[in-house]
Amino acid sequence: MIHSPYTPGVLQAALVRLPDWTCDADRLALRRTFVFTDFSQAFSFMTQVAQVAERMNHHPEWHHVYNRVEVLLTTHDAGGVTDLDLNMALAMNTLADAAGTAGGGS
Question: pTM score, two decimals?
Fold first, then answer.
């Protein structure tokens, strides 16, 4: 399936649904840092996201240090943010909320 990248206006509208996410203009991507109570909780979150990513065939770029998981979402083939990224971000938010993130992230 071919995915079209969001226009700037569509991307800004999508961010309304993703209040803890920002647009990384340099990478044409969505970005968020999740903060958990400890390493185990962060790693468990990543394991759950990996299962969703496999089902979607859409995989995040991420960096994990102790209780923090930094995420970058973009659809490389499309050259920007698409519905795949929005859906992955929403799924990640749901999983993080269920895990009880330790107060935010950015």
Answer: 0.90
Q: Which domains does the chain have, with CATH numbers?
A: 27-99 (3.30.1360.20)
pLDDT at 102 over 60: no
d(CA 35, CA 12): 24
How many helices (H) and strands (E) are present in the chain, helices listed first? 3, 4
DSSP secondary structure of 33-72: EEE-SSHHHHHHHHHHHHHHHHHHT---EEEEETTEEEEE
Q: How many CB atoms lie within 10 A of CB 34?
A: 27
| Interatomic CA distance for residues 106 and 20, integer angstroms | 5
Residue 19 DSSP symbol: T
- Count of residues for the chain? 106
Query: Is 69:102 a contact under the CB 8 Å cutoff?
Result: no
